[in-house]
# Entry
Amino acid sequence: MASITPDDLRARFPEFSDPVEYPDELIQGFIDDTECLMAPGPWGCAFQRAQACLVAHYLTLYKWTASSDPLSSIGKGVIAESESEGDVSVTRRAGSNGQLQGGGPADDLYMTTLYGRMYVQLRDTVLVGVTSTGPGASVSHGQRAGLMWGHVGNYGN
# Structure
C-alpha cells in the first residue's frame, strides 16, 4: 500500500487544507518522517488512515511549537483528571483506551492531540491482535512497536 499524499491528508482532514498555512512541502516532510516509522504490511488496509493521523499529529505539534509562546502549548489537548486533598495532588491522564490511568509515558506525546489519540486507538486496534504462539505468550507495547515498524518475529517464551 502506498503512502498518502498531501492531497490525501487534506481530503481526510480538511482543517489542513490551507496551502499557505500547510504547504505541500511541510506536509510531505512529515509524510516522509512517518515512512521511516511505519511499514505498510502490519497495518494492512488501515495503513493510510494511521499514517494520516500520525502526520496530522505532527502538523499539530509543529503549529503549537511554532506559536509565539511554544511552552504554553505543552500538554495542550491532553485528557486528564486531577484531584487534590490538602497538600496532596494527583493527576491521571487518559490512556489510549479512553480510561484514566497513571503512567504510560510511551504514549504521552500522542495523547496531546486528537490525531495522536486517534493514531494510538487505531494502532492498538489493528496491531494488538498479533500474538505469538506458546503458553502464556503475549505481545508487550515494545514488541507491538516493533510490529508497527515492520519487525515481525516470534516473541514466544
In short: The chain is about 40% helix and 10% strand. The chain has a mean pLDDT of 74. Helices lie at 6-12, 24-35, 40-43, 47-65, 114-127, 141-148.
